[in-house]
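Q: Here's a chain of 272 amino acids. Please give me its 3D structure as tokens.
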Amino acid sequence: MTWRQRHPKWLGDVATLILLLLVLYPLFWLIQVSFRPKEELFSSSFLFMPTLENYLALWKGNFPLSFINSIISSTAATILAMLFGVPAAYALSRGKFRSARQIGLWILVTRMAPPIAFTIPLYITYRYLDLHDTRTGLVIVYLTFSLALVIWMMKPFFDAIPRELEEAAAIDGCTTWQTFLKVTLPLAGPGLAATAVICFIQSWNDFFFALILTRTQASTAPVAIVGFIQYVGWEWGRMAAAGTLVMMPVVLFSIFVRKYLVHGLAAGSIKG
């Protein structure tokens, strides 16, 4: 007798539902706290009169600027990382030069050192180049760390695409660049979506570099949330509202490309 015969199907459904509730409960708690009045923040009752006072309070300070900084720096870094990293991954996948493997290894090495190891050199360099507390400085940092991720995520997708398709395109008169744009990239669409989402999340959620390399003008949303922790007390309502707003762009982006994201993550786990 198999496991499925001994255990009804509904047991698996119940276990999945319980696991889903455990995973989503912190998000539900965060969202409902953001709508609670100040005097009912820690009430055990789920019945309360929703209010927007926590969200309205956010726009009276520096949070709007920080939110815009996060959007600009994360989006710009993701776009640039894809523009530079995808062709590099394709070159490593299709290249026939001896040092291709060594180059790939050195690209991976850039991700091995902890971020804190780069703090002092980056800080000194940014002060010297007048990039401290600028969006450009953040984009450069995020690009530096996202580029290796893009190359290593996209290379398996390009490896899985049959070279015969590119050879057929070349026979039809396509150049290498035309073959890459019209044949290879459309087939690697799921991988592009998965890689872009992960790069955006990595840049969007960054706290360490934004804290060290910015002050006020280029401060990002994760850093701004820490500002609600004060000596006189923690502003839980504003923190919950800010956390909800910070979470929404990533959720919306993931929903928008969910079809390609799921397929891309599944395809990336299979070689050949």
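Q: Can you summarize the key feature?
A: The beta strands are 229-230, 233-234.
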